[in-house]
Amino acid sequence: MKLSTFIQMSLFGIKTIIFKKKDPILGTIIVTDRCNLHCKHCSVNNITSVIYPYEQIKEEMRELFDMGIRILFFCGGETFLWEDGGRTLRDLVTEAKDMGFSIVNVVTNGTFPIDLPEADLILLSMDGDKAAHEEIRGECYDLIIENIRKATSDNICLYMAVNQLNKHTVEPVCRLTEEKNVRAVSFNFHTPYPGTEYLMLSREDKAEVCALIGRMKDEGIPVFNLKSAFSYIVDQSFPTPCWQCVVMENGKLSVCGRCIDVPGCCEHCGYFFAAEYTLLFSGKPNIIFEMLRTYPGFIG
Asked: Could you tell me which of 50, 9, 89, 90 has the C-alpha nearest to residue 249?
């Protein structure tokens, strides 16, 4: 992480903690809900299948930047499906960088060639070993592994949503960090959108998974999560929503995430980053110290 970015984020954190501010620092723009996969745990794909136009996304970027947001994510649907008038996802990333965003990340399912060195991180969904991943996402595991190996930069962070179908395959995903171009692995628990409640983990499941992730991290696996937040995540005892994060989709701004409008989702939130951010900006010393040790090594 660049020193200027580190200082900027640190000052934001200090002001947020001392003055109990609710200003956001992280924003996500949904560039499309169109997706080439139909994953069992997903309820937000192909609802409209609209590719949002470049000028609209650029305007949304400017709105988020003017709010003080400096960490930007592009999400879908599948982000690599986005194009408008010859412009591609690369154009959105470079536009965001030129606009002044300090960190620009992209989320993808990994089924398209990964040629985006301009992004700080490419969060690539990997939901278990081959059998578990394909039970959830369909036949695409080998293609994804091939695309990882052929990627043009080492900015890939594997991104696993742990649920009842893949909870036994956390370690194989951790071992994939040995692959060329994979910088780290990050975890979430399944958040129960309507129709997917059967995939949600019990408290006991979450405790077992967190214990395993912790052992993997102790072993030296580059896990982009904070062990000090695990007990709060298991017990669902972190504050919600996360005021420091917002999502923009087709002009609609939501605090924390799209699930905030879905009854019951916040009470069963599985997003590790939301827990980590709310605890961080609540001023928890152990979270702050671990974040300072962890984040700079994976970003930038």
From this structure: 50
Torsion of CA 106, 112, 116, 120, to 10 degrees: 30
Among candidate residues 81, 30, 35, the one with its CA nearest the CA of residue 56 = 30
Cα–Cα distance for residue pair 214/63, rounded to 1 Å: 38
Q: What is the pLDDT along the chain (300 residues), one digit of tens a residue?
A: 777 787 888 899 889 999 899 999 999 999 999 999 999 998 878 788 999 999 999 999 999 999 999 999 999 999 999 999 999 999 999 999 999 999 999 999 999 999 999 999 999 999 999 999 999 999 999 999 999 999 999 999 999 999 999 999 999 999 999 999 999 999 999 999 889 999 999 999 999 999 999 999 999 999 999 999 999 999 999 999 999 999 999 999 999 987 888 887 888 999 999 999 999 999 999 999 999 999 888 876
- Nearest CA to 287 out of 215, 239, 222 is that of 239
Query: Alpha-carbon torsion 273, 274, 279, 282, what sign?
Result: positive
Tokens 């700079």 belong to 296
Domains and CATH numbers, the chain: 22-37+44-298 (3.20.20)
The answer to whether 153 and 117 have CB atoms below 8 angstroms apart is yes
- Of 143, 138, 116, 112, which Cα lies nearest the Cα of 127? 138
- The distance from CA 281 to its chain's CA centroid, rounded to whole angstroms, is 18
